[in-house]
Amino acid sequence: MARRPRDQSEGVRHVTCRGNRRQPIFVDDYDRERFLALLGKVSRKLGWRVVAYCLMPNHVHLVIDVPANTISRGMQLLNGQYAQAFNRRHGYVGHLFQGRFYAARVGTESYSLQVARYVVLNPSRAGMVQEAVEWRWSSHRAMLGKEQPPPFLDVGWTLGQFARRLELAREGYAAFVAAGERRPDQTRPDTRGQAPGQVPGGRDPYD
């Protein structure tokens, strides 16, 4: 059966990709820094706006606003270049990533916030840290002002959904994420915010 063509329209996507056979795709912090550097390179090249991200041991979450006809090309560049560098560095051969990346269209601003929260809560949901702020490899710490945001991350859009003043915006954002930590059963995005063409139920296949 032929695979369904990718939705190449402009808009926000929740993108996930994982290691082949669920194997780790990051060995150390150098690998993580390289992936983020390549994400920045691809974002600049194709005009992507990154809303949130989280690097987990064997998969990656991205929430990105993409121009039309760039999602497949961009992910091919990002995953392809990273996999080549990873294999060279660690002496591996073969596929690093399993199959095609998963991309769900995000249709509304409120749903974008829910997805962004779900993404940064992945480490605490997985029991890797007690609180999301402890995980260095997501957009969460930059949103809170605890570290300098990478150039590709649009901190202003997310914080602007909570308040105009930066301090109040960070407080509102922190409370929003904290509410998800207190109620982990409600961290999955509300599927009523889905746009047509999303995977039914909004299920993340990499949980």
Provide an overview of this structure.
The protein has 207 residues and is an alpha+beta fold. It has a single domain, classed as Transposase IS200-like (Alpha-Beta Plaits, 2-Layer Sandwich). It contains seven helices and four strands. The chain has helices at residues 29-46, 71-90, 109-120, 122-125, 140-143, 155-160, 166-182; strands spanning 11-18, 49-55, 59-66, 102-106. It has a four-stranded antiparallel beta sheet with strand order 2-3-1-4, sandwiched between helices. Strand 2 and strand 3 form a beta hairpin. It is globular. The two termini are 26 Å apart. The model is unreliable at 190-207 (pLDDT under 50).
Order of helices and strands: EHEEHEHHHHH
According to DSSP, the number of beta strands is 4
CATH architecture name: 2-Layer Sandwich
In percent, how much strand structure appears in the residues? Answer: 5-15%
Oligomer: single chain
CATH superfamily: Transposase IS200-like
Mean pLDDT: 89
Q: N- to C-terminal separation?
A: 26 Å
